[in-house]
Amino acid sequence: MPPRFEVIGIEGIGEVRPGDDIAGLIVDAARAQGTPLESRDVLVIGQKIISKAEIVRMDRGIIVSETHHGWVCANAGVDQSNVDPDTVALLPEDSDRSARQVRERVRALAGADVAVIIADTFGRPWREGLTNIAIGVAGLAPIKSYLGDVDPSGRPLTATILAHADELAGAAELTMGKLDRIPASIVRGFAWAASEEGAKPLRREPGRDIFR
User: Fold this and answer.
1) What is the pLDDT of residues 116-148, one digit of tens each?
2) Domain 6-201 has what CATH class?
């Protein structure tokens, strides 16, 4: 069978409030719509509901900065959309930790060994439009390296490293949208490698970052 996977948006999660059990809301909503979480699923969650549940907020931001997580982004991850009036949401304080906690909670509630990606939209140099990327990862290897492999012509690959976690986050965004109130999606059928590295391998070292 040719390689294939599907992406399933999770409806019915509802408005998230500070202190809510994100994993519980997702497990219940996925079950209610007839697509309960299964082992080997990848659960992609928009960072906004993580930040809401963790009460991560502030009153103002700046234009461009590097966050303490190592991400360089517009407004330092400050976002006023889809939050209460006079409130903004920041990135989770430790997105890898948040992803691990959701993963462990899903295993406890649903008996499913899933990978978890916390995703956020980023702008890209020289490209119009936003795309989802992974800012927190638990359970899967965020990158796949082909360095040292040989192509069909016998030439060794010297620069091919795929950002699998970012690609999965981008695929999930197509079912989530910005106005559809679907803050999480299931990626089912994708063959991922297990890892506890988190999202760190996705961040380029400062000495190799030409945009700094």
Assistant:
1) 999 998 887 788 888 999 999 999 999 998 888
2) alpha beta
